[in-house]
Amino acid sequence: MGSIKDKVAIVGMGCTEFGELWDKSEEDLVVEAAYEAYEDAGIEPKDIQAAWLGNSRTAMRGAALAIPLKLEYVPISRVENQCCSGTDAFRNACYAVAAGVYDLVLVVGFEKLKDAGPERLRARYLYPDLFPQVPLGLPAQEFALKATRYFHDYGLSYEEGKRMLSRIAVKNHHNGTMSPKAQFRREITLEQAMKAPMIAYPLGLLDACGVSDGAAAAIITRSDLAKQFRDDYVLVKGIGICSGAKQAQLCADEDLIHFEENVRAAKVAYEEAGINDPLRQIDLAELHDCFTITEAITYEDLGLCPRGKAKEFVEEGVFDLDGELAVNTDGGLKCFGHPLGASGIRMIYEIYKQMQYKAGPRQRKNPSLGLTHNLGGTTGAYTVSVAVFGQRE
Amino acid sequence: MLGVISYGAYIPLWRLQRSAIHPGLGGEKAIAGFDEDSITMAVAAAIDCLKQTERGAIDGLFFASTTSPFLEKQAASILANALDLKRDVFTADALACLRGGTIAMRIASDMVKAGSAKRVLVTAADCRIGAPDSSFEQNSGDGGAALLFGDSPEAVATVIGSYSISNELMDIWRLPGEAFVNTEEDRFIEEEGYLKVVEEAVSGLMCQSGFSVKDFSKVVLCAPNPRCFRTIVGRLGFDSNQMQDPLYDRVGNTGTAYPLMELVAALEEANPGDKILLASYGDGSDVVILEVTEHIKNKNYRGIKSYLESKKVNDDYRKYLKWRKILPLDRGRSVLIPKPSLKEMMRRQDEVLRMHGTKCKVCGTVQYPPQRVCAKCHSKDQYDKIRLSDKKGEIYTWTVDYGAGGLEPPVVTLTNIDGGGRAFCILTDASAHEVRVGLPVEFSFRKSYQEILPEYFWKVRPIRINE
């Protein structure tokens, strides 16, 4: 098998504000993200040779990009892989560029979740085999089940476990205050997080990410062509993506306190990127904190801390903005918001800006390697993507 | 010996104290949970009845009720699936008449006698709703019972006599579209209805069979209320210690299920050689005499006695009215229920109603829902379908989903099933503070509360009665 390492470079990116964007249409979002990326890369729309769209629930086919952007008669593919849709669209685009078929392509991730009510996240037809036995198949329930078991297996009382989760929410909210495009930009206290209304025991309102509208875009090229566009381009170092086959639901000997899909996707990405000590080698990571427990478990799955030690690491501040490995420097899904198909590209946007030292007050000192991570699906059948990015040599 | 081979009953967990309806009223009534109805209670009673029976041997099934969820469509076919009975089973509903339970008993018994079936299961359940504050609401209760008829040397009781009369009287009725039963003036319907008809029917059978009042060790009479009960006992000349406790203050009159539940209670305390007289009422009366055999002592059912002891009190009348959908629910923005696909419901019947999982023939791994390719060893189409609904389990993890909407936030569990497999299941008959990792549970057939169509499926509940 080959590797994507250093074959592809990002030369332009754009990202809209995320949030409840009642006054913006899907077309508005796509236009804003794509044109910011065009300008950033210094290219004209007509330079785009092909495009990929990451979208999970709100658009059909590539025309959802062609129409607003007037991309005329170029190949556009829509990639659906739930919360990994954006990163998977990006991955497909990378492979096409690395294969030498195209020199300059556009990737856009977007989602307009807030036009519909919560039924947009209710997935009777997406997960028919969970109905009618499980009510509504809501995401909070899905991850709360893991939190209960995590607390149980590591002997954490409700207060102890909740304190760990709340600490993660406080950290991401703090980072979000420095992130002008984020949905939520206010500090919260540990007490507020711990006492927030329960949504799915033991998860409270402040353990959950925003449900949002938003779009993000990237322009990529072959790395040997990147210098034509800019000096501070960002290189793709590795991408791993995998889907579980429902083992954790079907096999009663599987635990629920780790996500095997995380482990497998990270292994692929780390191998490509040459990472063997992730905590030391990676400087910042955008992890899929749809719920605080997901971020906690992902630390362990990605080898950023040992099994069962998330609580210690969180409380020591290892993943704080000034910590050893900053996690969710832009506020994460928690505060930046989570328009499903846009999130993967939004994460890459943050890593890209950090590597160009354009992250403002949340700028890391030495953003050597950055990682993005997405997770979507249901127990045992998650799709996970892990991608690693680096600065040019 | 032709007769009752086994018996079972079901009383829902919840009791509504009558003082919650009106201060000063005494006793309590059994009330179905918000996710129960006559079908689910009949399934529960049948499971109790079939504990020691090979289900594949059953070739007839009756469901008797005045509260089938369907005006058109059979309910027994749902029961046949939930009970995992064979495809070529004869199913029938005995609906609309309060005598439905004993009607089904007579037909089942005659089917066996005629040789058209070997094992016929009779189920009866009712969840009748009285108008708020009506005396009907106070006197009625919810429950179910099941009796398995067959010709077997193991029969616990044989039918030694039966007699029926038909009587036309508008005393209790409900028209399509009506939620509550209609009645007439009490003295009229009791004198011209219950008292006259039952007296005539019981006397008729005694006259025909040659038995006298003193020949019966237990008498089951199912009067609509305690006053009527006292009157009929006096008129027929039975002694009060012959009478099966009518359970007015603990369960209430359970409609079509009532005579069968009372018969089960009588059988639980019966001795070999006892004769039991049973009289039902509804548009006439069926009277049956059973004689108890020596096999009565070998049985181990939950029955009436243990279900009576296993209870939780609901003293919130408003909550009860919401359970019965008499008070509407605040349909907040989070309670939109997606409509099921009928095609998908059809395809997944074995999984959802029969609770079939697959057991891999190669590696033995049990998987739910059924899988064609084994999740462990990846062998294709090498599996046996196995019924999981009668297994016990243990809660592996759980949450309370406050975002799911509906009546109360559901406790959602991932339950590990004894013998392998795991299933996402809602916990019922328990509040959130009772749940914990490792809690032993059993499966219970339930109905969704906010359905567009009635949807039935299995939930888990804390093991209600240890056997």
Describe this structure in words.
The complex is a heterodimer of chains A (393) and B (467). With 393 residues, chain A is of the alpha/beta class. Chain A has a domain at 8-117 and 213-219: Peroxisomal Thiolase, Chain A, domain 1, CATH 3.40.47. In chain A, 35% of the residues lie in helices and 20% in strands. Chain A has 13 helices and twelve strands. Chain A has helices at 26-41, 63-69, 85-98, 139-153, 158-176, 190-195, 247-250, 260-273, 278-281, 292-301, 310-316, 332-336, 340-355, and strands at residues 8-15, 50-54, 76-79, 104-112, 198-200, 203-204, 213-222, 234-243, 284-286, 326-327, 369-378, 381-391. Chain A has a ten-stranded mixed sheet with strand order 3-2-4-7-1-8-12-11-9-10, with helices on both faces. In chain A, strands 5-6 form a two-stranded antiparallel sheet. In chain A, strand 2 (50-54), helix 2 (63-69) and strand 3 (76-79) form a beta-alpha-beta unit. Chain A is globular and about 60 Å long. The mean pLDDT of chain A is 95. With 467 residues, chain B is an alpha+beta fold. Chain B has two domains: 2-323, Thiolase/Chalcone synthase (Peroxisomal Thiolase, Chain A, domain 1, 3-Layer(aba) Sandwich), CATH 3.40.47.10; 342-462, no CATH class. Chain B has a nine-stranded mixed sheet, sandwiched between helices. In chain B, strands 20-19-18-21-22 form a five-stranded antiparallel sheet. A three-stranded mixed sheet of chain B has the order 3-2-14. In chain B, helix 2 (38-49) crosses helix 3 and helix 6 (186-209) runs parallel beside helix 7 (226-236). Chain B is globular and about 70 Å long. Chain B starts with a strand and ends in a 5-residue tail after the last strand. In chain B, 51% of the residues are buried. The chains are: A alpha/beta (393), B alpha+beta (467). At the A-B interface, helix 4, strand 5 and helix 7 of A face strand 16, strand 18, strand 19, strand 20 and strand 22 of B.
Number of helices of chain B: 12
Q: What proportion of the residues of chain A form beta strands (DSSP E)?
A: 15-25%
Low-pLDDT residue spans of chain A? none
User: Quaternary arrangement of the chains shown?
Assistant: heterodimer
Number of helical regions of chain A: 13
Low-confidence sequence ranges of chain B: none
User: How much is the average pLDDT of chain B?
Assistant: 94
Number of strands of chain A: 12
Secondary-structure element order of chain A, N to C:
EHEHEHEHHHEEEEHHHEHHEHHEE
What's the CATH superfamily of the domain at 8-117 and 213-219 in chain A, by name? Answer: Thiolase/Chalcone synthase
CATH class membership of the largest domain in chain B:
Alpha Beta
Q: Briefly, what CATH class of the domain at 8-117 and 213-219 in chain A?
A: Alpha Beta
Spatial gap, N to C terminus of chain B:
28 Å
Named CATH topology of the largest domain in chain B? Peroxisomal Thiolase, Chain A, domain 1
The name of the CATH architecture of the largest domain in chain B is 3-Layer(aba) Sandwich
- Largest sheet of chain B, if any? 9 strands, mixed
Beta-strand residue percentage of chain B: 25-35%
- Form type of chain B: globular
Structural class of chain A, by secondary structure, is alpha/beta
Greatest contact pair? A-B, 41 and 50 residues
Question: Going across the major beta sheet of chain B, what is the strand order?
Answer: 5-4-6-7-1-8-13-12-11
